[in-house]
Amino acid sequence: MIAARPILVAVLALLLTLVAAAPAGAATPRGFFGVMLDGPALEPGIDLDAETRTMAASGVGSIRAAFYWRAMQPRQGEPIDFAQTDRLVAAAARAGLRVFPTIFRAPAWATGGDQREGAVPKDPATYAGFVAEVVRRYGRGGSFWATAGVPVVPIFSWQVWNEPDIGRYWQGNPWPSTYLTLLRAAGPAIKAVDPSAQVVAAGLTNESWNDLRKLYDAGAKGLFDAAAIHPFSRRPSNVLKIVRLARTVMRRHGEAAKPLVLSEISWSSGRGRSTLNYGWETTERGQAARIRQILPMLAAERRRARIQAVYWYTWLSPAPGEKESFSYAGLRRMRNGKPVSKPALRAFRAAVRTLR
User: Fold this and answer.
1) pTM of the complete model
2) Does residue 19 sit within a domain?
3) Could you list the residue range(s) of the whole structural domain that residue 69 is in?
């Protein structure tokens, strides 16, 4: 026992160093930091179980994933194809991770033939019916958990659409009122299946605080359980400013107690590589540095701003060579057909472990 004392002292010193490095009151629950899972991570050649295990080992607590209505129900009246989402949800459950779906992209049969990415369902009830079926499968008591042979990790938060304030993703005009028509149908449909489920509004980007105000002005109060924003900015300090501005809007509209989800934050490492840029591109080292800055800042702000969760966009990027800036946003990237970690993942892992 005496010989073990130097080791014990060293361990205690390390723990004290980690605690001192974190801001006061910045300890976070396991599910606070998550990642978006999309792109090459879902391709057939990728070992999804290996990726979700790496996530869990890196401090990821939950996965945000797009459930594409168009892909799951391309033809009216046919059974929903759950093959892809079953694979994702099962891999997450085996790794002990919860899934947070954002459900969007309407099939042409539901839009009157409009095949654009942001085409709006002609009858919101069709979208609501689809969402209800997904909740019946993966929510509390869902049919998936009875037969999948994986740990039961039911989905309890459901995000209704993605970035409707951007025309590419929502063709309704004006977007606030037409989006709320969809939310008015989907929210009750989710609650009818699982009364304890959380309805999360679509993530808003750009000047998200102003777009959140537009939603409230259009009648959003009471229609969701949590608001969501995507506070992209060149500087980490501006991410905090955006969070505080959004919280001010919620407080002024009588919903200060409701949580706020940062359903996407990111910095691209595409500087010098991507050509379709947004002004916040950096290098791989710069991306890691931003992560080391922003995660403790958001953890310190968690209680004051009632931040429920933060999702990094994204987990795995394609191999370098793409034009789009977001194609360089991953904590990992493809190289020679295999996923490899970037400096960003090491920074993420170290920050999250410190903040736990």
Assistant:
1) 0.93
2) no
3) 28-355
